[in-house]
Amino acid sequence: MEQTQLQAVWEQILTKMKETLAESAFKWFKSVKPISLTATGLVLSAQNDLVKDWITSHYLTIIEDAVGAVLGSKRKVDFLVLPSVQPEPEPEPAKPEKDADSTQDTKEAKEAAGHSSRKKEDPNQGTLFQEQPPAPVDNGDMHIVAPGDRSSLNPKYTFETFVTGSSNRFAHAAAMAVAESPGKVYNPFFMYGGVGLGKTHLMHAIGNRVLQNHPEMRVLYVSSEQFTNEIIRAIQEGKAELFRQKYRTIDVLMVDDIQFLSGKQSTQEEFFNTFNALHVADKQIILSSDRPPREVQKLEDRLRSRFEGGLITDIQAPDLETRIAILKNKALLDHVDVPNDVLMFIANRIDSNIRELEGALTRVVAYASLINKPVTTDVVAEALKDVFPNSHKKEVTLEVIQEIVATYFKIRIEDLHSKKRTRSIAFPRQIAMYLCRELTDTSLPQIGNFFGGRDHTTVLHAYDKIAKEREENAKLHKIIKDLIESIQKM
């Protein structure tokens, strides 16, 4: 959703809240801004921890009710602490009574960036570029990035095409905050997670949004391998000065797979100086890795310390609901019509990463087209038999779900069919009904009949109850996630 649309929705929510809140209470929301809105959650910004804690402890239910009234369904509301960004004042003449500590801090920051004239702080000393003569600027492959240049960005990777779920919601919201105020919040911004989970997508989305809002900025996305190769080339061709000009005049620098700097001492040295030069100038730095900084082996402590000085967020493998949403989004973007049972079939069998998930759908659609057959679960099983051996897993059935749930809660399957209404039985029964609705295409009446001849309204009530509690209760969310994983392994 575009920022203007998001702001308009937030204004409607505020108007609804005014009907309930006193004017004195409403003042708490003066600095609150919307960050992101998805089908399941709304992320808002708070100016500081005090505002966040006060609002969440006193007014969270009122916000959720207003969201439900405006959007037609309740969403989980989360907060990020984003200090308000004020424009920097014009520099003033130096005053004789300047704070000594403040003066020293500024001086040390400049020296860390290589601005000191003392030889031991010169960023050219002790790096790969030591004793290299300055090279004349040319416009070869190592060109200076021009304002508004999008050549390093994939235009398809935007926030609008990124599918959010519980596994990536925080990273998505933080990325949007960085994109809206580059260099002002979360700097550096460090994302980590397994291969194919959306880190690269979010980096490009940040870059695309920054240039949409600030076409005058210089944005560069590179892999750590490209950064290393350019350093080597600069040494070989005597282009040290051009290398520095390229990387130290950037407004937003994004380096993917930063873990591959591991063990490359000279490359780490030059990246350290580049990092300092950008950071002291309030330029945004965004990094991604397959692991958190503390787990990157053979990484200099001073680099690790700087990486940990900003916001670190992880991206987990998508849960079942998110995988289905990703497949639906892929089908929509590719303009293909794929039945829901096929999407469920694929999502149940591929849970490792998004690339494999989307690749599987592309293969299935192409295979069905080549053999001139509609896309069915049988076609999926045939198309994926060589690529994904697990594609022939057993179909998820109501019997399997009941067996897994009964085992997990240490009750008998007969208890799920019984009329017992004690919480130790009724709660697992409701969870089992929820999972039957989520993981199969069985109708509500059929599910109700399978659970001891219950009415379909009982099943619907159980589904709605568990779905709502799952959004609000992290422990229940973990239980259901574990159950789904166990069911999928059967």
From TrEMBL:
Protein name per the record: Chromosomal replication initiator protein DnaA
SUPFAM superfamilies, per database record: P-loop containing nucleoside triphosphate hydrolases, TrpR-like
Region (Disordered): 84-150
Organism: Mitsuokella multacida DSM 20544
Lineage, highest ranks first: Bacteria, Bacillati, Bacillota, Negativicutes, Selenomonadales
PANTHER family the UniProt entry points to: CHROMOSOMAL REPLICATION INITIATOR PROTEIN DNAA
Subcellular location: Cytoplasm
Feature: compositional bias, Basic and acidic residues: 92-123
SMART domains registered for this protein in UniProt: AAA (SM00382), Bac_DnaA_C (SM00760)
